[in-house]
Amino acid sequence: MILRNEDIREVIAEIPEGHRHLRTTIVLQDGSEITFQEATIANIVRAYINIKTHPQRQRVVLRGRMLEDKKDGYAEWQLIEEGDHD
Questions:
Q1: How far from 72 is each of 9, 33, 61, 69, CA to CA, in Å?
Q2: What are the C-alpha distances in Å from 27 to residues 1, 16, 44, 50?
Q3: Domains of the chain: which residue ranges?
Q4: Structural contact between residues 43 and 79, judged by C-beta atoms closer than 8 angstroms
Q5: pTM for the complete prediction?
Q6: Which residue did the predictor score with more confidence, 58 or 72?
């Protein structure tokens, strides 16, 4: 699925009441919604910046992994950069 700008009615970025982390909701023209947690958007932005600012890099692959040894305050499930990039 490719979402074009014209497919999107609005993007809502907010910290919902009672929560501590940002949620980003994309509302499509047909009324359907996709909501991303803060960590997901942060990973997408990190990959985007990595490619846009690198003189040769054209690809970043982030794969979901369950981490046994994680930093305090971080979720066990993380999107980790794979070594398979250009």
A1: 38, 32, 25, 9
A2: 15, 16, 18, 27
A3: 5-81
A4: yes
A5: 0.81
A6: 58
